[in-house]
Amino acid sequence: MTRIRFQQSLENLKEKLLVEAGLAEQAVQRAIEAYRKRDLSICELVSRGEIDINILEREIDQAALDLLAMEQPMAGDLRFILSVIKINAELERVGNAAKTISERVRHMERMAAAELPVNIPRMAELASEMVRMSLQAFIEADAEAARSILTMDDAVDAMNKAAFKALIKVMEEQSHLAPQALNALMISRALERVADHATNIAEDVIFWVLGDDVRHHKSVNLLQQQQDKGETSA
User: Fold this and answer.
1) C-alpha to C-alpha distance for 183 and 109, rounded to whole angstroms
2) Residue 3 — pLDDT band, cuts 50, 70, 90?
3) Which residues lie closer than 8 Å to 40 by C-beta, 6 or more apart?
4) Are 123 and 160 in contact, with CB atoms under 8 Å apart?
5) Is 198 exposed, middle or buried (0-12, 13-18, 19+ CB in 10 A)?
6) Residue 105: how many CA atoms within 13 Å on its side-chain side?
7) CA distances from 41 to 22, 34, 102, 119, 229 (A)
8) Taking a C-beta distance cutoff of 8 angstroms, is the pair 196, 131 a contact?
9) Handedness of CA 188, 127, 21, 220 (dihedral sign)
10) Residue pLDDT, tens place only, 83-125
11) C-alpha R_g of the chain
12) Please, what are the domains in the chain?
């Protein structure tokens, strides 16, 4: 494979990944719209969209593996292909999370409407924004933009924890609303996972651009803080 053909293959791989990214983001937006409207027809669109995402995931994986086998790329090109494989898996999981939300909506559609102490649309807005930003960082090969996404995950985590506490309280004190609260809890958890996948994509972008492995950055930072605190106390 000539260098020009190889670079074109890399570009085609990137384009396929961006198509999959658009489908994954659309799936989350549709799932939340279904939640707002309790519209089962939108849930059906999410299910159909997941099939397209799954097909693209397989095509991207195969194309990436073919490039690894035929060209044996080095340095930046190798990191790019490896990052594509990992981002590909994260996008498929975003699609799965959207389907989980739509399935919960199907259950809730049969239940009486209820005011619950959780802002699902706001969580969805933040998680979707993280997905958009992580993919924009990928398009622009912008490691600094990707790094800024890592801290955004904390806000979604905090909202999910608050939702968990509030919804558990509803289930304990208003048993007649327990089914609605449980479904809302599972939707909140799915959105938290979407944010996690966006964070993982951002980490993959940093790896591709800089060669830095920043996975588990929260655990590493916490360990460092604990060590610093121990040294200070001593």
Assistant:
1) 11
2) confident
3) 34, 105, 106, 109
4) yes
5) buried
6) 27
7) 20, 8, 10, 23, 54
8) no
9) negative
10) 999 999 999 999 999 999 999 999 998 898 889 999 999 999 9
11) 20
12) 3-221 (1.20.58.220)
- Which H/E stretch holds residue 24? helix 3-37
Burial label for 207, CB within 10 Å (0-12, 13-18, 19+), is buried
Residue 5 burial (10 A CB sphere; 0-12, 13-18, 19+): exposed
Helix 3-37 with 120-140: angle, nearest 10 deg: 170
* Per-residue confidence (pLDDT) for residue 221, from 0 to 100: 47
The answer to whether 104 and 118 have CB atoms below 8 angstroms apart is no
Residue 219 confidence (pLDDT) above 60: no
Q: What is the CB neighbour count within 10 angstroms for residue 189?
A: 16
CA-based torsion, 122, 127, 131, 133: positive or negative: positive
Neighbours of 36 (CB within 10 A): 12
Task: Pull the structure tokens for residue 133.
Answer: 């930003």
Token representation of residue 187: 């939707």
Tokens of 89: 């898996």
Distance CA 34, CA 101 (A): 9
Side chain identity, residue 218: K
Answer yes or no: are the C-beta atoms of 145 and 203 closer than 8 Å: no
Please name the residue ranges forming H helices in 38-74: 40-71
User: What is the tally of helices (H) and strands (E) in the chain?
Assistant: 7, 0
Do the beta carbons of residue 184 and residue 105 sit within 8 Å?
A: no
Tokens for 157, please give them. Answer: 């985590």
Residues 196, 186: Cα–Cα separation, whole Å: 15
CA 149, CA 129: separation in Å to the nearest integer?
A: 10
